[in-house]
Amino acid sequence: MQRSQKATSTSEKDFFLNFIQKYASIGTWECDIVNDTLIWSDETKNIHEEPLSYKPVFETAINYYKEGYSRSTIETLFNNCVEKHESFDVELEIITAKGNNKWIRSIGRPIIENNQCVKVIGLFQDIDEKTKITLELGRREQLLTKTFDLSAVGMVTLNLKGKFLDANKSFCNTFGYTKKELLELTFLDITHPDDKNKGRQAIMDMIDGKINYFQAEKRYFAKNGKTVWAYISSTVIRDNNGTPLHFITQINDISQIKTSTKKIVNLLDTTENQNKRLLNFAHIVSHNLRSHFSNLNMLLDLAKIEIPESTDNEIYPLIKQAVDHLGETVDNLNEVASINTKKDIQLEPISLTNTFNNITNSIAAQIIASKAELSINLNDNLKVMAIPAYLDSIILNFLTNAIKYKKPNEVPKIDINAEITDHLVILKIRDYGMGIDLKKHGEKLFGMYKTFHKHEDSRGIGLFITKNQIEAIGGKVDVESEVNIGTTFTIELKKYEEN
Amino acid sequence: MKKIDIACIIDDDPIFVYGLKKLMKIANFCESFMIFNNGEEAINNLTPILESGKNMPSVILLDLNMPIMDGWQFLDEFIKIESHKKITIYIVSSSIDPKDKNRLKNYQSVSKFIIKPVTIDLLGKISKELIK
């Protein structure tokens, strides 16, 4: 009766033990030194991924330990346990029967009889998951620490009152403080007085959890007193209960960008001012010149009426001519000034064919007199975006130039063609006239008051104004020319696109 | 043809004034002149004349760029005088700046913008317009 009760209690104990072993992932083992036998509990076999029927062998059991550090460590520890009666508790790696790598904890204790170690009994625990997580955490921690320390961006952690808890190298470099010095300071201590209130509300909101982060441009002082412009990005770190612990703030030093921006803005200001002054100057000059011209003109008219005899000589007509030229020059100056000052230019679609027809009609006399041969090859539907007056003036100037600068003793021949690209109309006006030596004159061709031919009508203002007008309506002009072969002007204009 | 009685010239340029007077005489434009060298002089003298209604000029030829008080400032003062509408004003300027022309739209009592130089033909046209 008693025996059977005891037997029951033993099996209950075994059951309980197995239960614990299974759920705690802890197995037991027993190594009999005297008989060289080894016993594993079921859970120990599980951890090794061996079947429950498996019988461990004392001599080879050690081979489950991963070769290298793990195996040599267990060897040493086990030997010390047997010989020096030292217990051990170690975390090592094994390779299971299925070839899996596992972290285990092995605990061994010697059983001493007559001062001799007869047995080593121990525990065997599967700590794989735990260890792997710990290792991973360690790796991440290291990664974060390295990121924090070596980041090119300044990074600090601050307590909720703004006191520095940590600062990385970049931050220290930017501000010229050592980490030790910083830990004695608060964020406000190095903030520019004008920016101290900046973001105060955002910080409150961040602590209250209304916002997750805060970004701003703020000014700070470096240790040497220099202002540091920074773009900061701040976020709050909370514990598991959501209680705010501290801030992490990143600081980008944008002082250089700020300085460059300031320089650029200043330069722009200066340029704009200079432009305004130049324009003003152009207006004054043209206005004043114009009043003198009109006075001269009026006086010459008066002289002709009042003192007719004073005009009956060689000089009077020359003076009259000079005054007329002065008037033209002033008008040209004015025109150029007005092209360059027009803002918000409104372009409208204009038919190229119509424009050419109008111009050729208006210079019909010139065309007939010169017997000019015009070959206009344009699609009737072709429309460009332009200001009508400008387009007229542009075409007129190119056509009259082509007629004017014909080869002596030849009738002028002019070809007009257009190429169409996605957004542009490329108009080509080709003449077979005298041509221009572009090597000599190329750079000055579209300059003001440049003439290249000794022609009675050469005034040298036409191309300059034409180029200005083309550019004012968003176009471009280019020229190819060879002396005695002819000239081709290529004019890029914006194409009218129907939606 | 009926002739303009008094023409008023407000201009600081003596050559222009000289020339214009001559041209007006040749064109038989008016009986007599009233000349002022700048806006201030003109407004100081014209105010009592307009108020009394005697010896009023029928036309003012006004320059824009003048020292002390320019043509625009003159206009601003002039339209404050009650009977100013009886007088026709022509702006006579060397300015061909479209900005000046646009600015003129703010002044109803100004008839026209004339760009110098003034010619006899032009005076004839003005004369016709005024007598109508």
UniProtKB/TrEMBL annotation, chain B:
4-aspartylphosphate modified-residue sites: 63
Keyword annotations of the record: Phosphoprotein
Response regulatory domain location: 6-131
Gene3D superfamilies in the cross-refs: 3.40.50.2300
GO biological process entries: phosphorelay signal transduction system
Pfam entry (one): Response_reg
Record-linked SUPFAM superfamilies: CheY-like (SSF52172)
Name of this chain's protein: Transcriptional regulator
